[in-house]
């Protein structure tokens, strides 16, 4: 499947077939996630996931990486109104894959972009709080 940037993207949206699970987000989850690229996208990874396990094309290394924290005490989360889709990143682009890949969904199952999650205050951008290695 041809896609963004002219790359041949894997089927199933970078997810291992059959690995997808959807559940409600709970208030006690302390997710620290990141995204490489634009806030218009919907895919997030655990911030500690190595690049090769994300199955992204190599040119993505030149894009900005931002980190985010889930706002667990948000009223939408308390009401069970935010869903979390989890899957396993498929091997692709010469990368091994294997990292968890996350996408937040509204009650209707529509994916929410990082930009929307920030606007709704469901995520907080913590990039500036990172301590350089």
TrEMBL record:
<dbReference type="InterPro" id="IPR025331">
    <property type="entry name" value="TNT"/>
</dbReference>
<dbReference type="Pfam" id="PF14021">
    <property type="entry name" value="TNT"/>
</dbReference>
<protein>
    <recommendedName>
        <fullName>TNT domain-containing protein</fullName>
    </recommendedName>
</protein>
<dbReference type="GO" id="GO:0050135">
    <property type="term" value="F:NADP+ nucleosidase activity"/>
</dbReference>
<feature type="domain" description="TNT">
    <location>
        <begin position="32"/>
        <end position="123"/>
    </location>
</feature>
